[in-house]
Specification:
The longest helix has 28 residues. By secondary structure, the chain is mostly helical.
Length: 467
């Protein structure tokens, strides 16, 4: 007897969900207790309004966003909602400079919640599973302590950003529905490729291009760092997939998009990823050719001139005269944050000075509220030794369990020199891209009409005419 398939058997071979027209689907959904759904969503909006007036506009916006997600979920199943959110993230990234500030954070938070509900991560009893849970406990505990100490209105937005990374590692490393994760990985990759291509077209054509460094960078309508991180990890993922020359345009486009942002943090990681792929990958000559095409495209497009101008710009500012001035003054930024942490009470050395401590210390010592520009600095100052140890354990598990390593080279480089905890939306895409894509199924073999079954083994045996 054939077992019944439920709506969650998305990976079942040969299974297709019944197709309904739009009107029939809406009527079907509206029959599912519309009164209860309306009351629930209305209550959530009411609570959100109340919170906005009394506690935190950030939390209120999050609750209102959750209500909107519930409304969308009334017409889509959980998998459809995950596809929708994952597919829209890259487009929000390339529009990040013209969207309200909290848009990416709220959508990224909603995406993680839906992915958790869909994949249902479960501890497999392994050493990595234990280390991941220990790391998450050490990393999240100082965050909760900071919220309790400073209030939701101070650190809620930062807390949502920070928690996205460990939750995505949990989803990818221990999510039970592996087939769904592979499909979402495909959605994330190709939606990102399309979004980056459109953004490059807007920038190169002059239809829309927002400058930041004034070195001729091509940003389109995106913010520079969030765009650079997305483009860098997508290029690394394409390099990992590029076994045929058909990937050459994708790799070249991603490389141009990364370099043309003018952001230098992903460049060492992208160069290292390309070198590793050429050395260790199969069909080395083909990989060398693909990387050569990408490098040539960078120079032909003029993107290389952006990096050159940034170098000369930094030289005029004296960036290369001392370690403190290197990287737009990162040495001064690190020193100010760490000096403030060392001057804090001893308890803060262990559990951190708070989620917004780096901004506070930078403003006090440098006169401007810089972020930490490194996840290690952000975690140590804001979450203490406990939080930094937790972050390192989470990274250790991600590196061990990632099926595609190259995106981690770019992500890790960005984390060290600029920080990725601040950029929750591209972090979701990056961690998803470390998951292996679905293997292509072999085409069904047509039965040989001249074959019969062996009487004992049951194997097909071709019957050939005698002689």
């Amino acid at each position: 007897m054939r077992a019944a398939l439920t709506s969650h058997d998305y990976g079942a071979v040969g299974y297709r969900r019944p197709s309904l027209g739009v009107s029939a689907r809406i009527r079907h959904r509206l029959r599912l207790e519309p009164g209860l759904a309306a009351v629930t969503i209305g209550l959530i909006f009411g609570v959100g309004t109340g919170v906005a007036l009394t506690v935190s506009p950030v939390l209120a916006a999050g609750i209102a966003g959750a209500a909107a997600v519930l409304a969308v979920a009334a017409f889509f199943d959980l998998f459809g909602l995950a596809v929708l959110l994952t597919g829209v993230l890259p487009w929000l990234i390339v529009l990040s400079n013209v969207l309200p500030r909290l848009t990416l954070t709220l959508v990224a938070g909603a995406t993680v919640v839906v992915l958790l509900a869909l994949t249902k991560p479960r501890d497999d009893g392994s050493k990595e599973g234990l280390l991941l849970r220990l790391g998450m406990l050490l990393f999240v505990s100082p965050i909760l302590l900071s919220l309790a100490r400073d209030g939701l209105s101070v650190g809620a937005n930062q807390a949502v950003k920070f928690i996205v990374f460990p939750l995505m590692v949990l989803i990818v490393s221990e999510g039970r529905n592996r087939d769904v994760l592979a499909r979402l990985r495909t959605v994330a990759l190709w939606s990102s490729v399309a979004a980056l291509a459109v953004n490059l077209f807007l920038g190169f054509s002059g239809i829309a291009n927002i400058g930041y460094y004034h070195t001729g960078e091509i940003l389109g309508l995106a913010s520079e760092h969030v765009l650079a991180l997305l483009a860098g990890v997508v290029t690394a993922a394409a390099l990992a997939s590029g076994l045929t020359l058909t990937w050459a345009p994708i790799i070249a486009m991603g490389a141009i998009a990364t370099v043309a942002t003018g952001v230098r943090s992903p460049l060492p990681g992208l160069a290292a990823a390309a070198l590793l792929r050429m050395i260790s990958g199969r069909v080395r000559l083909r990989m060398i050719l693909l990387v050569g095409v990408a490098v040539g495209a960078i120079f032909v497009s003029g993107a290389a001139g952006v990096v050159e101008k940034r170098f000369h710009q930094g030289e005029k500012r004296g960036e290369y005269q001392s370690l403190s001035d290197v990287g737009s003054g990162r040495g001064h930024i690190y020193s100010a944050a760490l000096d403030g942490w060392r001057a804090s009470p001893p308890l803060d050395w262990f559990v951190g000075a708070g989620l917004t401590a780096v901004l506070r210390f930078e403003n006090e010592r440098l006169g401007q509220a810089f972020v930490g520009h490194s996840d290690a600095v952000e975690a140590l100052v804001g979450l203490g030794v406990v939080g930094l140890l937790g972050l390192l354990l989470i990274w250790r598990v991600l590196i061990a369990r990632a099926e595609v390593k190259l995106p981690l080279v770019v992500l890790g480089c960005f984390a060290a020199f600029n920080g990725v905890l601040e950029y929750s939306a591209p972090v979701i895409i990056a961690v998803l891209l470390t998951f292996r894509a679905l293997p292509q199924r072999a085409p069904a073999v047509e039965p040989d009409p001249g074959a019969s079954r062996h009487p004992e083994s049951g194997a097909s045996v071709a019957l050939r005419p005698a002689g």
